[in-house]
Design goal:
The chain has two domains: about 300 residues, BirA Bifunctional Protein, domain 2 (2-Layer Sandwich); about 90 residues, Rossmann fold (3-Layer(aba) Sandwich), CATH 3.40.50.800. The strands form six sheets. Strands 3, 7, 8, 9, 10, 11, 12, 13 and 16 form a nine-stranded mixed β-sheet that branches. A five-stranded mixed β-sheet has the order 20-19-21-22-23, with helices on both faces. It is built from eleven helices and 23 strands. It starts with 20 loop residues before the first helix and ends with a helix. The chain is α+β, with helices and mostly antiparallel strands. Helix content is about 30%, strand content about 30%. Helix 2 crosses helix 6 and helix 2 packs across helix 8.
Length: about 425
């Protein structure tokens, strides 16, 4: 990709109303654009990062048997009335009437829609279990749409839903999803904890959240320094929990941290099936309600969280697995550098190395400043001084090396 062609260009200054780090840096670097409070456009660079996030999620969902589909965003009132959540979730949902006075909601979640799919297609125990997921837009009437892309009224969500014949089967799959989420957030490079949390408008059961430790986070969690125990602040009834002995392993100490929630999982039970008449015929011929669970990750929230936890005073610092490009090729124009840059760019591309080539006619200082702001893991500089070779510099280091094109390709491979 040629940097001269990328839409839009970088900005020198952050938006005046920007308070969070992700808001300032993602907008300045041209990754996102704000339409209104809580509503964001993923620009080409931001979309590339989210695609990589989604691919990691998709691989782990497929590995546990999830099947991808895509469900509608506009739902009729009737389906939400069946569960009783038209009124129960009224403060969260966007509800409206069309020109024929028919009432609808914009999707803030899809449990009712999945239940409707199940009752149309599930007949016997032989049709279960089922695990389906999609990447889709969610709409929530967020009273405090702030913190950049972390807290929106419209955002991307990956939600997985599973249906089972028994509670044991549901809980067994629930643990598989929990393990898959641990793999996802580990692959994304996060320092995170799994915590117990409340079910909110989804269930009366306790649920699990995946919380990334971050000084700028809005949540507070408590966790053990020895085992995997952790809880959200909303479940903590002990004001002197920090520093006490872990209630789980009885060995570690309880610590606290600010955090950002990036995922959650809900064991919903048979409540939805009983409300909406979703049953199956068991092996003995009896009718039984389906056991149900749901599991969410917010890819756009992950995008913002990555910036919050990985940046410096110059800009963003992308982890290689989610960076918009593998390398940022900077051409400092000289008598021989231009033709050499094109040759190197083409060789890198042919070797399946994704490169952003800064071919702009601007100063070296502007090129280096933009490279630091955009935060691609490796910067490759070509100039007359490199004498046909390439200066290699990693975003996380001040060290530079002069390498041949063959050595550069080998390092990436």
């Amino acid at each position: 990709m040629l940097q001269s062609k990328i839409f839009p260009k970088t900005r020198k200054d952050a938006p005046k109303d920007a308070e969070s780090i992700n808001h300032k840096l993602l907008v300045r670097a041209g990754f996102i654009d704000q339409l209104m409070a809580g509503s964001w456009t993923l620009l080409p660079l931001g979309f590339r990062v989210v695609q990589k996030i989604n691919n990691i999620i998709r691989e782990e969902m497929n590995a546990i048997g999830g099947q991808e589909l895509l469900m509608p965003l506009m739902h009729p009132k009737e389906i939400w009335n069946e569960s009783g959540r038209w009124e129960k979730a009224k403060d969260v949902m966007y509800q409206f009437k069309d020109s024929r006075d028919k009432e609808f909601a914009l999707s803030f979640t899809h449990e009712e829609v999945v239940m409707d799919l199940l009752r149309k297609n599930i007949k016997s125990y032989q049709d279960l279990p089922v695990a389906i997921y999609h990447f889709s837009t969610k709409f929530r009437n967020e009273a405090r749409a702030k913190s950049g892309i972390l807290r929106g009224r419209e955002f991307m969500m990956k939600d997985l839903y599973s249906a089972h014949t028994t509670e044991d089967d549901m809980l067994s799959f629930y643990e598989k999803v929990k393990e898959a989420y641990v793999k996802i957030f580990t692959r994304l490079g996060f320092n995170f904890r799994v915590t117990d949390a409340s079910g909110g408008v989804f269930t009366e059961r306790h649920t699990h959240e995946f919380q990334v430790l971050c000084d700028t986070g809005e949540d507070t969690i408590f966790y053990c320094d020895k085992c995997d125990w952790g809880i959200n602040q909303e479940l903590n009834t002990n004001p002197k929990l920090v520093g006490s002995i872990c209630p789980n392993c009885k060995e570690g100490k309880v610590l606290s941290s600010k955090s950002i929630e990036v995922g959650n999982i809900f064991p919903l039970g048979t409540w939805y099936a009983e409300k909406m008449g979703v049953t199956f015929t068991d092996v003995d011929g009896s009718k039984k309600p389906v056991w149900f669970a749901s599991y969410g990750i917010g890819p756009t929230r992950v995008l913002g969280t990555l910036v919050e936890v990985s940046h410096d005073d110059k800009g963003m610092v992308w982890y290689p697995q989610v960076a918009p490009f593998d390398a940022h090729l900077i051409e400092l124009r000289g008598q021989n550098s231009s033709s050499k840059a094109k040759e190197i760019y083409e060789k890198l591309e042919r070797s399946d190395i994704d490169v952003l080539w800064d071919d702009r006619e601007v100063t070296a200082g502007e090129k280096f400043a933009d490279a630091d702001l955009i935060g691609i893991p490796v910067r490759l500089v070509i100039s007359d001084k490199t004498e046909g070779k390439i200066e290699w510099k990693e975003r996380t280091s001040d060290k530079t090396e002069i390498l041949s094109i063959e050595e550069v390709i080998k390092r990436f491979q």
